[in-house]
Design goal:
Elements: E1 25-31, H1 44-50, E2 54-61, E3 64-71, E4 75-81, E5 83-93, E6 96-107, E7 120-121, E8 129-134, E9 142-148, E10 153-159, E11 170-173, E12 181-186, E13 193-198, E14 205-212, E15 220-226, E16 232-238, E17 245-251, E18 254-259, E19 269-270, E20 283-294, E21 309-316, H2 349-359, H3 364-370, H4 386-394, E22 408-414, E23 419-424, E24 427-432, E25 443-444
Antiparallel strand pairs: 1-4, 2-3, 2-5, 5-6, 6-7, 8-9, 9-10, 11-12, 12-13, 14-15, 15-16, 17-18, 18-19, 20-21, 21-25, 22-23, 23-24
Helix pairs in contact: 2-3
Length: 445
């Protein structure tokens, strides 16, 4: 049901009522009380409503805004700057939008200002309606129900359901580096649960674990594992162990060897031991506490270049390698070719070897002595000079040469274009270069 009448609220707006700043401001006064002189013109329901209204008032001018809340019967006084101010009023009855109105007033200093705001009742408002509300929850929409007892009309407005009010997360299943965990929380209103995965943890480096033990015949394997799972960060080989040789004498100065771990057998071994074992695993035949100079060769940057250095020891291999008993000093095209620059002193053998191979790369004694340790950490072997060969002769009994008649080897020292020095029986002598003779590598360190 609707009341058809002009609904007016007369608002007195006064300015400059004793204003010390009347040249720049004024007062807006709003009387929200009912007008008793007009009450007989209104239906009793409306007159009763007037003093129960709640008002939202917006006063604005250019960029300035003032918002006020008031109830029916209130008297509002607001000081503002002079100028053209707009006033907008919304009236509410029992929470429902009942009426609205607006107007403007030009506040001038030193003058009273009166404005009338006509409040128009909204068409949707009904005095005879009963209002009920079903509050929403977080799992169900609510309802706003309006029932008109006169027109027997019902209207329902849906109220959107609330957002969940979640509690704190609680860990359900801990996460690891191979299995994602989970966590759970509940709405504190409706108890609905929510689950989420917890990300995998990072792998954490632990200890090395041996996959296969190393021995002296086969490298082992080890892996670096994660502390929490079997993930392997990396896999590495374990270096070979050293053989544990057991020596069995088989001839004067010679022994055969067998590893006690892997049972591998070695060749014939020179059993010289009184001066110790060298870094390359051979035996030391000479010690010079003051040191001697190993002559360098070539220019820096050349493939066969090496610098001179000071050494204190000479070392020969422990193994007697099988092979031909003799080789010519050089290849056939160089039988009578002069190879100048070789020397006879201790420390000259390595440079002699390089000189020979620079002239004749197929000179087998020099080449095979140089290549003896190729591919290892000890690739500095060479054919000894005649004086270095003399040192080998001096300790010959430790090589199994009980008789001096059995000791003969090539040196790396040339005599002339046709002959080279070698050691024969008890003395240094010369031999034609195309003669066959054995040779033995040596190194200085």
């Amino acid at each position: 049901m609707k009341f058809v009448f002009g609904f007016l609220i007369i608002m007195m707006i006064l300015s400059a009522c004793f204003n010390p700043w009347q040249d720049s401001t004024g007062n807006i006064i709003i009387n929200l009380g009912s007008d008793n002189s007009r009450s007989s013109l209104w239906p009793p329901q409306e007159y009763e409503i007037l003093n129960q209204l709640r008002y939202e008032i917006l006063i604005y001018y250019e960029d300035d805004e003032i918002e006020l809340d008031a109830n029916g019967g209130d008297f509002i006084k607001q000081t503002v700057a002079v100028g053209l101010w707009n006033i907008k009023i919304d009236a509410f009855y029992k929470g429902k939008h009942f009426a609205a109105g607006s107007n403007s007033v030009n506040i001038k200093p030193g003058q009273d200002n009166l404005v009338t705001i006509e409040m128009e009742e909204l068409d949707t408002f009904c005095y005879e309606c009963e209002h009920d509300e079903i509050l929403p929850t977080c799992d169900k929409d609510g309802k706003e129900i309006t029932t008109c007892v006169i027109e027997l009309h019902n209207e329902e407005i849906s109220i959107k359901k609330l957002d969940h009010f979640w509690g704190e997360w609680q860990e359900s299943i801990p996460s690891t580096c191979i299995i994602a965990g989970s966590k759970k929380r509940e709405c504190e209103l409706c108890k609905e649960p929510e689950m989420e995965d917890i990300a995998l943890l990072d792998h954490e480096e632990g200890k090395w674990e041996i996959i296969e033990e190393s021995c002296c015949s086969k490298e082992g394997l080890k892996k670096l594992l994660c502390t929490n799972c079997d993930y392997a960060f990396e896999v590495e080989t374990i270096p070979l162990l050293n053989h544990e040789w057991e020596l069995t004498p088989i001839a004067p100065g010679y022994s055969s060897e067998k590893c006690l771990i892997c049972e591998e057998t070695g060749g014939m071994i020179l059993t010289l031991s009184f001066l110790g074992t060298g870094p390359a695993g051979g035996v030391i035949i000479y010690v010079d506490p003051d040191g001697f100079t190993v002559q360098g060769y070539g220019e820096e940057g050349d493939d066969d270049y090496f610098a001179s250095y000071t050494a204190h020891y000479l070392e020969v291999p422990r193994y007697i390698e099988p092979g031909p008993t003799s080789r010519p000093w050089v290849s056939i095209p160089f039988i009578s070719v002069d190879i100048p620059g070789t020397d006879s002193i201790i420390g000259a053998g390595r440079r002699n070897t390089a000189i020979i191979l620079a002239a004749d790369s197929d000179a087998l004694p020099a080449r095979e002595c140089r290549d003896f340790g190729k591919g290892t950490d000890f690739d500095d072997w060479f054919l000894p000079s005649i004086h270095e060969l003399q040192l080998m002769y001096n300790v010959r009994t430790h090589f199994g040469f009980m008789s001096s008649l059995t000791f003969f080897f090539w040196s790396s020292t040339q005599f002339n274009n046709t002959y080279a020095y070698y050691f024969y029986n008890t003395q240094q002598t010369m031999q034609i270069k195309n003669s066959g003779a054995p040779y033995h590598p040596i190194r200085a360190f």
